[in-house]
């Protein structure tokens, strides 16, 4: 039996009262578990498998599908705004679409936990998401290095074959802004706009061009400015 800290990424009904659950665990990466009877009114899992709240879990099994033995969420449910909630869904979707399944990376786990915690009350979610995207991209074995001889005022663009390259377009992210971003500095709204465009291409490559549904959810709320790019 394995014991770990974890977050619920996705759940779907299975048979009469069970669920197939994907959890993101600290030491075992993304794990598929079966919650036997977890949808039943008297289930021991009732109220313990909410998304975006860290759990203490135990699971066991000899196949790719493990059996959930216990789950306890000491954290309390919380309320947040629409954009913040969809931003959390976006983080979950990236983990699933990037095939980050059997990897165990505690740095990404802690980055995810910090991102989710920050998104609960953030007034602007874009920079939090860009940092999570960057960490996940690096954890998947990719590396975005600046072109040799790049100057601060040069503009960057991304393609899946050559990575980062210098482009003449003035609306692209500058080398100076990209360096600030990778160093963990805060960025202004104006600096974020071209960085958002740059990272959109990076993430499309990470998920192999698959549709990211949470982007569409943000577009459905025109009154709120989308921050997931």
Oligomeric state: single chain
- Using only CA atoms, what is the Rg? 19 Å
What is the count of DSSP helices, taking H or I runs of 4+ residues? 6
Strand content bin? 15-25%
Strand order of the largest sheet: 1-2-3-5-4
Query: How many domains make up the coordinates?
Result: 2
What is the CATH topology descriptor of the largest domain? Answer: de novo design (two linked rop proteins)
In short:
With 229 residues, the chain is an alpha+beta fold.
Characterize the structure shown.
The chain has 229 residues and is an alpha+beta fold. It has 2 domains: 2-72, Nucleic acid-binding proteins (OB fold (Dihydrolipoamide Acetyltransferase, E2P)); 82-219, de novo design (two linked rop proteins). The protein has helices at residues 82-97, 106-119, 126-139, 175-182, 189-206, 213-219; strands at residues 2-14, 18-25, 29-35, 55-60, 65-72, 155-159, 163-167, 173-174. A hairpin with a 4-residue loop joins β4 (55-60) and β5. α1 (82-97) runs parallel beside α3, α1 (82-97) runs antiparallel to α6 and α2 packs antiparallel against α3 (126-139). The chain is elongated.
Topology:
Blueprint lengths: L1 E13 L3 E8 L3 E7 L19 E6 L4 E8 L9 H16 L8 H14 L6 H14 L15 E5 L3 E5 L5 E2 H8 L6 H18 L6 H7 L10
Helix pairs in contact: 1-2, 1-3, 1-6, 2-3, 3-5
Summarize this structure as a short list of keywords or feature phrases.
single chain; 229 residues; alpha+beta; OB fold (Dihydrolipoamide Acetyltransferase, E2P); de novo design (two linked rop proteins); five-stranded mixed beta barrel; three-stranded antiparallel sheet; 6 helices; 34% helix; elongated
């Amino acid at each position: 039996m394995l014991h770990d800290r974890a977050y619920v990424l996705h759940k779907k009904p299975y048979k009469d009262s069970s669920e197939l659950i994907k959890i993101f665990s600290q030491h075992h990466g993304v794990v598929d578990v079966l919650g036997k009877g977890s949808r039943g009114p008297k289930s021991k899992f009732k109220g313990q498998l909410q998304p975006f709240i860290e759990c203490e879990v135990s699971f066991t099994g000899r196949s790719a599908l493990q059996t959930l033995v216990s789950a306890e969420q000491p954290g309390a449910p919380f309320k947040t705004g629409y954009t913040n909630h969809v931003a959390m869904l976006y983080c979950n979707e990236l983990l699933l679409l990037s095939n980050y399944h059997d990897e165990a990376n505690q740095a990404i786990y802690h980055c995810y936990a910090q991102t989710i915690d920050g998104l609960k009350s953030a007034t602007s979610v874009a920079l939090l998401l860009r940092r999570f995207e960057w960490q996940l991209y690096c954890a998947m074995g990719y590396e975005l290095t600046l072109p040799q001889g790049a100057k601060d005022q040069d503009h960057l663009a991304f393609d899946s074959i050559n990575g980062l390259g210098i482009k003449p377009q003035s609306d692209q992210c500058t080398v100076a802004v990209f360096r600030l971003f990778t160093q963990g500095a805060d960025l202004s709204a104006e600096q974020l706009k071209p960085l958002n465009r740059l990272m959109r291409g990076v993430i499309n490559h990470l998920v192999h061009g698959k549709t990211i549904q949470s982007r569409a959810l943000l577009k459905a709320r025109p009154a709120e400015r989308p921050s997931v790019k």
